[in-house]
Amino acid sequence: MSRLTGGDPSLLRRINSAVVLHALRGAGSPTLTDLTRITGLSRPTVEGVVEGLFEAGLVVEAHPDESEARRQGRPARRFRFRAEAGYLLGVEIGPHRVSALLSGLDGRVTGAGSRTVSETAEADERLDQVRAVIADLLRRSGVARSSLRAVGVGSPGIVEADGTVRLGTALPGWTGLPLGERLRRSFRCPVLVENDANAAAVAEHWKGAATESDDIVFVLAGLSPGAGSLIGGRLHRGFGGAAGEIGALHLLGRDVTPEHLLSTTGTPLEPLDEQAVAVVFAKARQGDAEARAAVERFLQRLVHDVAALALALDPELVVVGGWAAGLDGVLEPLRRELARYCLRPPRVTLSLLGEAAVATGALRLALDHVEEQLFAVEGAVTTRR
Amino acid sequence: MSRLTGGDPSLLRRINSAVVLHALRGAGSPTLTDLTRITGLSRPTVEGVVEGLFEAGLVVEAHPDESEARRQGRPARRFRFRAEAGYLLGVEIGPHRVSALLSGLDGRVTGAGSRTVSETAEADERLDQVRAVIADLLRRSGVARSSLRAVGVGSPGIVEADGTVRLGTALPGWTGLPLGERLRRSFRCPVLVENDANAAAVAEHWKGAATESDDIVFVLAGLSPGAGSLIGGRLHRGFGGAAGEIGALHLLGRDVTPEHLLSTTGTPLEPLDEQAVAVVFAKARQGDAEARAAVERFLQRLVHDVAALALALDPELVVVGGWAAGLDGVLEPLRRELARYCLRPPRVTLSLLGEAAVATGALRLALDHVEEQLFAVEGAVTTRR
């Protein structure tokens, strides 16, 4: 707080820049008069800020449309935010697939690409595929690598602040991998690595099933289940970045993996073999008794894990994503059981973004990073300790 | 943000008041020169604010000590915060006991009182005891009821924002009780009701075992276990105020109460009969096999519940309080199991405040409320959506 009152004249300038930039991005092609009205700032202040943004290449003069040019002798100058002043990537690295989304500085997706990759692929091979997907996407989109402003990456595992994977059992060679460092060699811009379920939670809040709620849990349902949560609209990473790692819950006195639960033969399925899982679910739908029992065991586990999260966090909304969400019968048992144990059970809904959730969240994290720089206002005013 | 930039001249005044007041409370009896140096504000600004605080009765002139008076011809005027300008209460309503703490506006406890109450007492009787404890405490302390600025109350159960108990199975007649409304009749100041485990979490962070950590889980261990958590130093209540209600976790496929688990006869103990529990623990210490098995079952349950919380929230520190914390052998199994399931297991420690935790937290919540009013700075600067 002393920053604000102790005399940081640049802070007010930065606040004003942020206000004007927000207004510019929200309001089509506003005139200076529009901006003055929207922001409540004085005309000279608005002019000064717009001039600065102009020089930074973030704002250009918009061409007045013809009707207005005809109506008025000399139309007021209009301005617009230059989303094309820089680009962002959102990348998902999964067990079976790597994918990437491209957007301008407004976060609107303008390109996408993906490749399949084997669940047994080693880290080097997986990273090669990531680089190939990105190179291909940039080339197809005609975007120079040098115009990238930030790259967000969603990956399974517990991810450190510097992008090192502290633990990642879902992918071979992933635990201990300095993922951020490895990827940074390919870019001149910041690379931000986030746990996949955390990224998906951010995505559903941004443009998916959770745009109306700030208190959500996103469950990445599958053989290696994980969860991400937003509290008051902010990602809750936990003290060590491991919040929501409910995959370990089943260890509590029950050393049985999902691959065990879903087995119809007594021998567990191959780790992460989702094809085999799909077969079990298909058989269950056809009425096979053993398959039904296996699916029932799997769903009970999932319900238990999600219920534990719901009791701990008390979210408004639970969004279920991941491949298990596409299988029959996940939602109803979840709703039923949560209603039993929670006084005010959260709403339960399916992911709207589906397979795109993790990459979309990674893109949003890249956008957050760039916006933080554009709108940098440090030392928020607060009097609570 | 538009508040700040859109022309709210009083905001800066309020920020300045908060800065000066913080400095006054931290710095003994500062002079105006001291305050100017500490706050970085201009001399006229500091003078104006101190004058305002003086008029509001929150600041008085401190008497210079004699040595200084001798040393200088005309010593600079010194000022001090008037903690005695108002009083606060922190109240705990428990199954077996009601208690209250009294403090000035600096939060320093100047008086305390408590009464035992039967776990079978109905709500009216329990509230009568609460009023009696408070009346007695005020009388003994020579504090007029009219000088109370806020009353904080910690109670078992899920508590609504208005102080209504939405669910409270630990106390007879508690579910649905408009606790805040009932207590407000006795006071002219605000009455704030909070879940007991939440209040205890706040207390341990304020002046207990968690002063060094902002990411904590407080476990109120006992027959009706609950938990409260701070995330980034702030109380996490959850969307519906039910976060941390891990007591319901045991319902997940295991409809067994702690009273069942602790039974050595097959017949469950009386609900909330902590005397009977103490007997079981004592027998276990003496080597009784059935009692040891019962205690083991109880501890396993507790460990499971806390592990679920730790996996969901990933705290830095788990503080164990409540009566079970005073019993042997809660801490070690908890540490051992958390180390098994958490990649970066939280530290586990006992409550430092013990029986005073809930009332202390309630007092802090009352203090928070008053400070918010004193230092009211609305519309914190933020540019993130």
Can you walk through the features of this model?
Chains A, B: One of its GO terms (biological process) is regulation of DNA-templated transcription. Chains A, B: GO terms for molecular function: DNA binding. Chains A, B: Pfam families: HTH_IclR, ROK. The structure is a homodimer of 385-residue chains. The first copy, chain A, has a five-stranded mixed beta sheet. Chain A has a five-stranded mixed beta sheet with strand order 12-11-10-13-14, with helices on both faces. In chain A, strands 1-2 form a two-stranded antiparallel ribbon. In chain A, helix 2 crosses helix 4 (43-55), helix 3 (32-39) crosses helix 4 and helix 11 packs across helix 12 (331-341). In chain A, strand 10 (216-220) and strand 11 form a beta hairpin. The relative contact order of chain A is 0.13. Chain A has three domains: 2-81, Arc Repressor Mutant, subunit A; 86-202 and 358-374, Nucleotidyltransferase, domain 5 (2-Layer Sandwich); 212-351, Nucleotidyltransferase, domain 5. Chain A has helices at residues 2-5, 9-26, 32-39, 43-55, 66-71, 123-141, 179-184, 196-207, 258-261, 274-285, 289-313, 331-341, 357-374; strands spanning 59-62, 78-81, 87-93, 97-104, 109-116, 148-155, 158-159, 165-167, 191-195, 216-220, 226-231, 234-235, 317-321, 347-350. Chain A starts with a helix and ends in an 11-residue tail after the last helix. Chain A is elongated. By secondary structure, the first copy, chain A, is α/β, with parallel strands linked by helices. Chains A and B meet through helix 1, helix 2, strand 11, helix 11 and helix 12 of A and helix 1, helix 2, strand 11, helix 11 and helix 12 of B.
